[in-house]
Amino acid sequence: MPANILNLSTYEVTHIDENEHDYHVTAAVKALPIACVHCHSTNIRGFGRREQLIRDLPMHGKRVGVYVDTRRYQCQSCNKTFYAPLPDIDEKRKMTKRLVEWIGKQAITRTFTSIADEVGIVEGTVRSIFRDYINALEKTVRFEIPQWMGIDEIHLIKPRCVISNIQNNTIVEILKDRNKPTVTRYLSQLKGLDQVHYVAMDMWKPWEHSKPK
């Protein structure tokens, strides 16, 4: 049996092919379902199978494609069919959860095209993952309103506005761009702007008209 080079305990690796640019890994889910996902009856039987290509983290400078033998079942009680769940796989995309998280983090400092080439996916998928990653961060991360607010620019793929806490020398927020509507909308939605005593910014004109009143 080939070694589990994936380091995913929920899968059993059955075959590995390697070439100059790719690892092609054939694997199967270890824990198979024992009950119907619809009615929870245990009276189920095999009803075919299909192979699914799942993308995973690049390894040794090569793209990784995991070919998962996914089993289909039919419930003898409700007559509905279902496929065996795939653990550790993203619900929206045919890739591992760890790959989705890795792409989100990488996209902060790298171009979407370079990530897409390294993983073996299209640029649009990287863009979509990055958007979801940023949206998730915005929902979970909350910063205190600084008394000394800095409004500056950083270049992450493209120019973006950076809101900072000058006193603590920390970043409060990185906006999607540096345009006046974006900055104005962000500042208008902030709660506790009355706590801001001073604002420091560069001389780029749109920001002067966006600063908190």
Automatic annotation (TrEMBL):
Domain Transposase IS204/IS1001/IS1096/IS1165 zinc-finger: from-to ranges: 33-78
Pfam families, A to Z: DDE_Tnp_ISL3 (PF01610), HTH_Tnp_ISL3 (PF13542), Zn_ribbon_ISL3 (PF14690)
Domain named Transposase IS204/IS1001/IS1096/IS1165 helix-turn-helix: residues: 85-133
Signal peptide positions on this chain: none
Domain Transposase IS204/IS1001/IS1096/IS1165 DDE: 149-207
The name this protein goes by in its record: ISL3 family transposase
